[in-house]
Amino acid sequence: MALKFIDLSAPLQRIEFLVPDLIPSGYVTFLGAREGVGKTTLLTALAWQMTRPAGRGSFLGRAVPHGRVIYLNTDAADGQSRPVRYWLEQHKQVYPDGNMNGLTVLESVGAGLSPEELGELLKHAQDSGALCVIVDSFMSTFPTLDGNRLDQAMRPMLALRDFAAKTGAAVIVTDHLPKKAAGEKEGERGIMGSTGKSAQARAVHLLTRVPPREVEGRDVLRWEVRKNSFAKSGHSLGIEVERLEDEEGRAAGVHLNPCDLPAEEEGRDTRTDCAKAAVIAALTGKAGQTVTHAELLAAAISGGNVKERSAQQAVREALGALGTQAQEVRLGGRGAPRAYRYGPEAQPIPAPVDLQDVPFLIVEDELEALSAASEPEEVLRW
């Protein structure tokens, strides 16, 4: 039986944090951001701080332990991990007491990481006693999986969860945020794909850039604690990225300084905002499934504590924010009630077919099997 009975008389072990109140050890943490915002800049800063002598490492104003870090770079891998090495060199300029020998940087030379290769990485992490394993990013590490489907997203997530448990390391996985739609706040829908990814991670953080006009032209990032099962959630940190240059204008280091965020960044959402967010969550949480208009209204009313008229408006705004990713469906039956289906690049849904007019029917699973049989076998299998 694939079930484990929990001994409720056994004492609970204390949760240790790699970064106090932010990144727990022994669990999976997600850091989501749009491309080019600064995920690599921040995570290489954490890695470098961990190579400094014991008692000296600090990340976002929090002390971090000295210990080995493994950085798996599959995002824009070029055979040299140039982006990762570039930022490590920038951090080294500011903190020269760090040691490159405390880091292991890896790249995948194939189409992502297979289960067998993840097993090899697990052994290396155990043998080296790594305290932190950074996977950059989920999408490029598991490129053959459809991250919008729960059954596919769960396979690598369970493997990563097991990886963290067996090593005791903090496993940090970067991911991407969907492109912001008109009238939508950056990161409003959370990380791309199935909510199963966020559900399996114990901490989920979003990284966005504060508009320069709101911070006097400075480069300020907003680190939002969207979820943290073992610490406070629902708050944000400000990080100013200060790039240093030498006399000839060449990069000569980088400072990451905790800073205050503009007042409006910390303002509470209105009830209408909450209702709209509840509608988006109802659709994205059931990616690929049909959700009735009545269900969306109920989600808006419950999530925002609003009346039906405001709920109707929240549904319209949420659908507008999702754009073409939310496709309208007309259900069968009296009045052809409306429903919606969320998914990337949604395809038109054919009209209902009378089965008496066709000689046979091939169900979706059989079509997938036939398609797979006609294609060459791939190396990656999850």
Automatic annotation (TrEMBL):
Superkingdom assignment: Bacteria
SMART domains with a match to the protein in the record: AAA
Coiled-coil residues: none
Domain AAA+ ATPase: 25-216
SUPFAM superfamilies registered for this protein in UniProt: P-loop containing nucleoside triphosphate hydrolases
UniProt-recorded name of the protein: AAA family ATPase
Species per Swiss-Prot/TrEMBL record: Deinococcus oregonensis
